[in-house]
Amino acid sequence: MTLIGWAQIALVLALVFLCAVPLGAYIARVVQGERTVLSPVLGPVERGFYGMAGVDASRGMGWLTYATALIVLQAVHFLILFLMLRFQDRLPFNPQDQSALSTQLAFNTAISFVTNTNWQAYVGETTMSYGSQMWGLTVHNFLSAATGIAAAVAITRAFVAGGVKELGNFWVDLTRITLYLLLPIVLVYTLFLIASGVPQTMAGYVDATTLEGAKQTIALGPVAFQEAIKMLGTNGGGFFNANSAHPFENPTALTNAVEIWSELVIPFALAVAFGHIVRDRRQGFALMWVMATLMICAIVACYAAEGAGNPLLTAAGIDPSMGNMEGKEVRFGTAMSSMFATTTTATSTGAVNAMHDSFTPLGGLIPLFLIQLGEVVPGGVGSGLYAILVFALLAVFVAGLMVGRTPEYLGKKVQAREIKLAMLAVLILPLCILSGTALCLVLPNGVSSLANAGPHGLSEMLYAFSSATGNNGSAFAGLTADTPLLDYGLGVCMLLGRFAFLVPVLAIAGSLAAKPKLLPSAGTFPTHGPLFIGLLIGVILILGGLQFLPALSLGPLAEHFSMLAGKTF
Amino acid sequence: MAQAETIRLFDGAILARAAGDAFVKLNPARLIRNPVIFVTEIVSILVTVLAVRNLATGQPAGFALAIALWLWLTVLFATFAEAVAEGRGRARAESLRRARSDTMAKRLVGANRGQTTNVPAPDLRSGDLVLVETGDLIPSDGEIVEGVASVNESAITGESAPVIREAGGDRSAVTGGTQVVSDWLVVRITADPGNTFIDRMIALVEGAQRRKTPNEIALDILLAGLTIIFLIAVVTLVGLAKYSGTDLAVPVLVALFVTLIPTTIGGLLSAIGIAGMDRLIRFNVVATSGRAVEAAGDVDTLLLDKTGTITFGNRAAAGFSPVPGVEERGFADAVVLASLGDDTPEGRSILSFARDRFGVTHEAPEGATVVPFTANTRVSGLDAGGRSWRKGAVESVLALTGGPAPQAFTQAVDRIARSGGTPLAVAVDGRLQGVIELKDIVKPGIRERFAALRQMGIKTVMITGDNKVTAAAIATEAGVDDFLAQATPQDKLDYIRKVQAEGRLVAMCGDGTNDAPALAQADVGVAMQTGTQAAREAGNMVDLDSDPTKLIEIVEIGKQLLITRGSLTTFSIANDVSKYFAILPAIFVATYPELGTLNVMQLHSPQSAILSAVIFNALIIVALVPLALRGVKFRPIGAAALLRRNLLVYGLGGLVAPFIGIKLIDVILTLLGFA
User: Fold this and answer.
1) DSSP letters spanning B285-318
2) Cis bond leading into A247, ω under 30°?
3) Smallest CA–CA separation between A260 and chain B, in Å?
4) Phi, psi at residue B428, to the nearest 5°?
5) Which of B305, B440, B511, B666 is catalytic?
6) What predicted TM-score, i.e. pTM, was given to this entire model?
7) CA A296, CA B126: separation in Å to the nearest integer?
8) B666 labelled catalytic
């Protein structure tokens, strides 16, 4: 740990929060259909799209219609992407003649990108054609991000007024979010990346001769544009296998800082936007502080663990001053690698600039635990906000009883129906993560995918299922993921982790929207301020985290204490 | 207020009976209503079977038996808690039953309903007419059609002084099981058998057919959800442990599972609900449903009738203002003499005011004649020895004295009228002496109660038939937040609708038939036992003491019910952290001895650690039974402060307490040589 390391972390965080506040106000204007600076340019385009699609922008949708529109669109897109990958060899823009993906891999990858997970059981530069990367993966990076934000906006609207039946129009939300929010930032971001040395070309791979005279193929492609939305939309699927550790995806310390900033800024801004839309900005900031507090603690813990290095190596005479540098890029160092690992899992991005598998046990525990918390600190774009709202409802319910009233959040009573749906959503996490891990660790087909024995092997499998269910997509690595068991198993987890969570959330939104909005009084328990922030943190840790403690104690914790005792596996 | 007999929190007889009932309640068909405890029972059976199998096959079974024993105790403690809560209401239910049974009724039959036939009370139907005479028990609930009688309602209210019941007006309802002590009544029966007020009370106090309240259902879902989550966590642990090289024994897994699921709140939830109803009944309020009690906790607007609730209802003297030239003391003498013959509450209040303030008392002079008040003269007074003292409405007294009133007098009269009081002028021998101020006297302490309500976030609204000026003056004095002057029943209804549309929940109390629509519209309507049958049916609570100020306590009882549930849930969930630290190192220490570091409590051995956690988990239920029955105290300190306090006590307390408890049990087990 160094002062410069802490300073870098602090600087990036400061920039995130400085930008999230105005961006949140902007997002609120966009999703409420108000005029923005971009309206003169984009307004006609937007209306053009509605005209072409025959969408009546003024018509609202009930929660069921909203959810149906969302699911049907995703289903159609899953099919398109699946076919595109399955028949990639017959489609254009394939200068390297990449062959078609197997059914299992196409299934896994299509689900992965539709659900904003971007779990990659393939190696980008040897599997995907330029066409698949551009029309397939990049398009879905936009679509899945906008879908998540739309769902978050829909549940936000449930708190605005009483007795409302409609949550907005899904098509309008999707269009406005893509046009006014994602595209403009991505365009500027792409230019910055190109200027920093990230390629954006349709030309094929280049052969180079190294100093030793060996021949090396250097993979290229339309990287910059995909890289921008990969980070901004908390997608995380890299153009190359090495993801953001690759110099063509993340060439400099500056691009690294910007990539971290770009994955954090929208999730935090959405919390701010929440406050704007419900007409009580303090509520949004309270959620933001919950997210920020937990994330900052995680960054500090991860950097502390990585900065301290591996005591076994120190004992073997290796200089610990740079911390644990195994699996990390020298141009980023321990601090910015730890921060990247923490933020990529605190959001549901899943991009990596270092190998999490090589982290110290506690350093690797942090990303794993952040995913298991339910991707809420701050979580993915949109999904982070709607998931933390589920936890907020549970927190308000338990604690709200303690002030002697039927619990209410923002004037909406939290009753049996909401609790039922919230528990249904929350159940998905242990169901997929723990059952999947346990099953694959007892099946010979599963165990054979592991690269390591002992607790580290357990962590690899646990990480894979956490990552898939939490729609994160990062890998602990050390796991051979392209097997039928894992392709299909993780695919199902991604699907459930996304939609079996999202549909109950929209149902909650529908139920809350229809309720009368009660006025706050001195008897209402305030959901802003430090008390609520502390309470929500406690609920997220206890309800979200406690269930994974047994599994974690057999994985990273066992490995950590064994390491301290000088034992390796 | 007649308080029902107080039952000690733990009465020997109740406890003994509850201990027996606790076993009856083990019947899984009954226990399934309580998912957490039902699941605990299922796994208890599982562990018992395994322990017995081990015994039979000669394998070591001591540990499994110990776990099984404590799991059964966990279930029993939960059923015991419910049985104790029910037991406390049962004594009351039995005395009510006695009042109900074997009454014979005199049903009026024949062309002009001239004859009576004796029929058993349970055969009466709604609409029947019955005659009830001195000494008879009223056979069922009804409305008086004819007659006036004094009725002893102590069977229901616990208050032994008889009350007057009469046809027409606001005191026409009678309750089955009460007794006519003088005169007779003709009553039209309004309730079918099994549906009477007493039947409802019995069902309530017994808690047997208790329906779960909305918040209870929501909480049950949360607890069931948590149970499923921990079921997944524990079952999948088998696979994870197998991979890690440990085969976990079933009793150990069950121990982990039972200590993690929220057995504490699961075991006490139904006791809390029954105790809440019981508190209300002990308070002489009968709610038609638990839902109404919960709604009372949510109320944020209270509609209170001015008369009888906020003020005493009778105007009383509050000040004397003599005209210039008359001494205060001399004026007091004049006032007292003018009022000696006035036997109204107002007149008496004037005499006591003069006595308390000026020490003036007078006997009537020899040969004095009282001049009574008439609607014509609108004055009253005394004549003695050729002198006359008169008191009355200002205009009437001025008419007696003739001549213009001094300016000071007119000003005083204006001031009194403006402040909502009533001025009475006094004249001696035809000369104006001054003015008495009569005021509606606000009950002492009511202002403080309203302030406390405001702290709770509850707005108080005063309803009165007075004009705006009077209403405003009293509203200010009593410290209510709002008032509704010259209120008609329709105004009340409209006001409630308006406030509800703003997103508020309203409670009100009322007694008259014209209150019925408003009582029905309000979220919580408390009807007075003295009121009409229509009012009693429209409301969702009946106050047996007919004391409108009780609305405030009803709200507190509702809140207390929710607070107790929330606090114990928080406590229960917070307990889980310590159980992980007790059990996880214990079950994995064979595979990864290094995980022993997590044994922060330094528990003696893996077996003692697991057993201690299970024992703590069972004992904490018993330890919290008194709290569940008594309820967590409600403090009117505002929601934020209340939450902070309860989070500290039950959240942080729940986190820390089991660490100490489990360690203590472990030490005891070790000392006793069990581990």
Assistant:
1) EEES-HHHHHHHHH--EEEEETBTTTEEEEEEEE
2) no
3) 33
4) -120, 125
5) B305
6) 0.87
7) 70
8) no
